[in-house]
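Service request form, structural biology core

Requester: graduate student, group of Dr. S.
Request type: structure prediction, single chain
Budget code: on file
Notes: please return the result as structure tokens.

Sequence provided:
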Amino acid sequence: MGGANQEDELTEETRRLIAQVGGKRELWHGRGVVTELCNSKPEARERFIRPILEYAERHPEVDALHVWLSDGSNNTCECEDCRRLTHSDWYATILNDLSPRLRQISPNMRVVFLCYLNTLWPPEEVRLAPGCDNLVFMFAPSGRCYQHRLGAPDCGQPLPPERPPVNQVTMPQGNVGNMAFLQRWRPLLPGDGDSFLFDYHFCWDWVLDHIIYDFAELLPGDLEDAAALGLGGMMCCGTQRCFYPLSLPMLRVARSLAGRPCDEEQEREYFRIAMGAEWERAWDFIQGVDERRVHPEWKQGRWEAPRLWWEWTTAEHAAATVAWLDQQKAVLEEAGQSAENDRERQAWALLQHFREFAGFAWRVADAVHRGERDSARQIAEEMVVFLLRTEPEVHRFADTGLQLSVVKRWPEVLAEEQVEPAVETPPLPPQEA
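Core staff response, request fulfilled:
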């Protein structure tokens, strides 16, 4: 599948089965993984279904088999026959065909289908058959906001009253619109409506945890809201190396899904176990970082977050945060000397690494607000070097590649035309004497 251009691999026989977009039947961006099919053609649907059944025959051990369409958007077939139904209607048609055939091969295997991109809007005419009780619905709100809980009633705008035209779908930027899609799909689910949340906390947004976000605080609320919305659990989309600077967010996912409390006492107990005798220094540091984080309300959507976050602070706030992080260097180094075993030493080392990471980020913001964008770009380039140089020290806990996918954009963004700051950040916390 990959990222290589595969257009030359298409034969005329297969080309007629892929989506016609803009009058052409071509691979979307040259890649099969993001290309839709001409789903009105029974042959196209059958050639999609057959490999799924063959895989199921070879892998009877699979409990739940995910059957997704392309990982693209606004690339659905525009031919006259396909326009007779919406893309979600064609998806339901495929699932209605697949479900009973899969049951014959593997009676206990479930099929996971999803609301995502081209299938955000539910089908209009085709209903999932009542007998398709081996289907599990996955809700993937990829355009959601992480400044607010999943069910926040005032985050974002409601959906437009009517479905947009073919290949003009836009993702809602905020949680109200995303939840509205879930509510529209809910009555159409077969069987007992088995469903779960597929969320992205530990993908790109994780890179700026404690700078923009506070996932340890957000996640228990998200999972509480998901349960209230009838979603039976969560699958995390993102890196498995997300235990940086703390393991607390993932611990709270586990505890929330197990129905265990995620209160302040549980958080303090985590710090005591991870950091040892001087755990309160680490606690105070993380509390201080989170008090100083910015709170963007994205107008362009969270996908623009890495390039815009510094526009949501002020010169005063950025400069004060840089100074505070510099002061914390000696505090963390002294506290880290108390470590009595490898676990505690590693935990302090990760926290000290994160202080440097956050220091680079806030120095970028500081330089931007002093009008020194060339200096900001240089600091961002130094941050890239820092991440590459220190990867061997943190690679078991932090996904440096994912961090670089965000940070490497900053020098390019900083070379662009200056954007006026969007809003002022909340007041600074009281400064110690």
